[in-house]
Amino acid sequence: MAEDRDPQRRSGAPQDEEHAEERRELSIEERRARRSAMRASQTYARFIDPLCDRGGMSPSVAQQAAVSVLCGLEQRIQAEESLDLEAQLPRKLTELLHRCERHDAEPRPSKFGRDELLKLVGEDLALNPDAVEPVVRAVMDAVRHQISEGEAEDVSAQLPADIRHLWLPTM
After folding, report:
1. Model's pTM, two decimal places?
2. Tell me: the pLDDT tens digits for 28-79?
3. What is the structure's pLDDT at 2?
4. Upstream peptide bond of 50 is cis (omega within 30 degrees of 0)
5. From CA 94, how far away is CA 85, in angstroms rounded?
6. What is the DSSP track for 37-80?
């Protein structure tokens, strides 16, 4: 009976002690940072994985496409609206957006239409013109699935009709 109370004799006790000691070695700030990084990776994967599937792209190409399309989209809408949009996107994606060279180069909103957006994305991704629109649509679809319906409507309201046609889901 005394053996049952001895933690060393119970099955798995040494492992439990190892995990407890490992947790004690990390400060609460370190554990929070790890959890935050893990959540950021998971939310980013929930964005990129469907984009890869929809667009038939590798993760690295999907990431480049997302940054290019979002950068162009954000150049076309008011700065306040782009902040609202970014607040609902995965943190890893917004961090990539802020590294975009064009992102803050011009005052927003810039006046350009569908053709200019497609040309910009095509140049960024080195795609032939026929391949650009499906990529842009795939990114915009993935973005719309990440944000609230209200935010999608707010973004749509600031887009010119020809870009809005790309933003709205195809039926």
Report:
1. 0.78
2. 888 888 888 898 889 899 999 999 998 889 999 999 999 999 999 999 999 8
3. 47
4. no
5. 10
6. HHHHHHHHHHHHHHHHHHHT--HHHHHHHHHHHHHHHHHHS-HH
Listed as own residue / partner, the contacts of 117-122 with beta carbons closer than 8 Å and 24 or more positions apart are 117/69, 117/72, 117/73, 117/76, 117/163, 117/166, 120/68, 120/72, 121/65, 121/68, 121/69, 121/72
Euclidean distance between CA atoms 59 and 62, whole angstroms: 5
Considering Cα of 154, then 127, then 43, then 27, what sign does the dihedral take? negative
Q: How many CB atoms lie within 10 A of CB 134?
A: 13
DSSP character at residue 169: P
In sequence order, which residues have a C-beta less than 8 Å from that of residue 53 and are 6 or more positions away? Answer: none
Q: Is the dihedral of CA 134, 56, 99, 85 positive or negative?
A: positive
Report H helices in the chain.
Answer: 2-5, 13-25, 28-55, 59-76, 79-87, 91-97, 114-125, 129-146, 149-158, 161-167
What pLDDT, in 10s, does the model give residues 112-131? 999 999 999 999 999 999 99
Retrieve residue 121's tokens: 């994305």
Residues in Cβ contact with 167 at an 8 Å cutoff, skipping those fewer than 6 apart: 73, 140, 144, 152, 155, 156, 159
Whether residue 81 is predicted with pLDDT greater than 80 in this model: the reply is: yes
